[in-house]
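--- STAGE predict ---
source: upstream dedup step, 1 unique chain passed
mode: sequence only
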Amino acid sequence: MIASGSVRGPIVAALAWVVVPLAGCSSGASPGAAERTIEVDGQMVSEASLRDAVTGSCTVRGLVSTYPLEARDVFSSRAHDRRHTIAAAVQGIGRTVAASRLQAKAVVEEDLDRYPSPPSIVGDLDLLTSAIRTALETLSIRTEDR
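--- STAGE serialize ---
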């Protein structure tokens, strides 16, 4: 059952942190790696905050089959700004990578706007996660899975 709007917010917050990341969805740096920051549009941004875009996509993937409306809320809130920051950072050095990430994001947004979400959404989220990882690699930001 989908929770009503007045209750959904707290449920989304709880689920967003309780969902166990799926295999292939870890986003942290290798243990012992020094945390760096990069400059994006004049702002210093930590690599950890950018890697959270991967975690956010994985959280949505874990929610979408059972809690599609909550998945949409998490997608719109968690890591939203980070996805845009990644796009801004990559645009100047890898236009193809930036375009691929934006296209994958648009497909997932379209999927999440449909209720029920199409069966292809899990694969579309996987493509988005892969595109985010590729963008991070373009910025020399490693994730555990790559």
